[in-house]
Amino acid sequence: MKSKGWERWAAILTVAPSMLAIAVFVYGFIGWTVFVSLTKWVTAKPDYTFVGLANYQRILFGGGIDSQRFYIDIRNLIGFTVLFLICNIVIGFGLALLVDSRLRGEHFFRSVYLMPYAVSAIVTGVVWRWLFTPGTEELGATGVNKLFEYIGLGFIHPRWWTDPTVWHIHPDTGLGEFLNQIHLGFFTTAAWGFPVGTFSILIATTWLLSGNVMVLYLSGIRSIPQELREAAIVDGATQWQVVRYIYIPILRPVTLTAVFILLNVAIRLYDLTVAMTGKGPGFSTDTLAFNMFETTFRSARFAHGAVLAALMLIFVSAIVIPYLRYQLRQEGTNT
Question: 70, 291 in Cβ contact below 8 A?
């Protein structure tokens, strides 16, 4: 009995430093951020005067520049996230199928596809910023636009991340009519659509993360029994039918995991944006994380920055909590 009691206390003492660090540096700082968001601290000098939800009301319903920028960020997030999920899921799954086809040099290609994930996002952003710098009339084209000139496509000459254009949702479409009929004033603070400048970030993030999605799918494909594939082929199924009716249904949990991971990345996107574009012209490439950083540390409006951080936490929690519940249910079903 004494031995078991000592082992229990030894286990508690072993994990106690980690639990204390998490309690202070994670949950403690989350609590501090929420507290600051409820105060009047909007200058470099701390002011802990309690104002309740006034700061949240200013951001969500105020109609000023803070509210406008917030909803532009939401617009950017929605448009970016939709294409971000589609590109990474499709490319990652395609690469996994390619690697699983037992090509010569499989280990080499698998390493090449996964290599971008090991590169710092700041380094990635700096490189892609140079590649997508459109150039000027005086200096000529640079980066990718220079390549277009070499292959005879110089007439394209996109402005990449410097383009403030937004592809608006036409009011005659069903979605446009729906947004116009909501009559919640804060929806009118942003021109709803897809900002063209976000394509640059989309390409860079897809290059960075599609290899990681490939690994998830490849591990799932390799777990499918070979006998199941062979039986389908013997029954006359084509390779596409094997993918459509065997791979995709079985890999739904993998797809769900990839979607949750990518959603989390999209909401917290910061470092690559800082290195590539910043907030962009007219906030065309702005993100919630970059907005929070500028509001807090450049404008010294700590309460408003804390509001943005708290809202980001809510968005991430809305993704993580259902995913954790799903994982727990899966574990319960398997046991």
Answer: yes
What is the Cα–Cα distance from 195 to 279, expressed in whole angstroms?
Answer: 12
Q: How many CB atoms lie within 10 A of CB 128?
A: 25
Integer CA distances (angstroms), 271 to 106, 174, 179, in order = 32, 36, 32
pLDDT for residue 146 = 87
Concatenated DSSP letters of 123-190: HHHHHHHHHT---BTTTB--HHHHHHHHTT-TTT---GGG---EEEPPTTSHHHHHHHHH--GGGGGS
pTM score: 0.85
Range of the domain at 253: 69-334
Task: Please tell me the total count of domains within the chain.
Answer: 1
pLDDT tens digit string along 305-314?
999 999 999 9
Instruction: Dump pLDDT digits (tens) for 220-244.
Output: 999 988 888 888 888 888 888 889 9
More reliable by pLDDT, 190 or 285: 285
**Residue 287 counted as domain residue:** yes
Report the C-alpha gap between 110 and 117 in whole angstroms: 12
CATH of the domain at 116: 1.10.3720.10
123 HSE (CA, 13 A, CB side): 6
CA distance 214 to 295: 36
| CA atoms of 248 and 278, how far apart (whole Å) | 38
* Nearest residue to 39 via CA among 30, 48, 29: 48
- Using alpha carbons, select from 142, 99, 145, 124 the residue that is nearest to residue 270: 124
Mean predicted confidence (pLDDT) in 260-280: 90
Instruction: List, in sequence order, the alpha helices (H) in 23-53.
Output: 29-37
Answer whether residue 10 is part of any domain: no
CA gyration radius, the chain: 24
Tokens linked to 197: 């400048």
| The pair of three-digit structure tokens given for residue 35, joined into one six-digit string | 């507290």
**Rounded to an integer, what distance in angstroms lies between the CA atom of residue 141 and that of residue 146?**
5
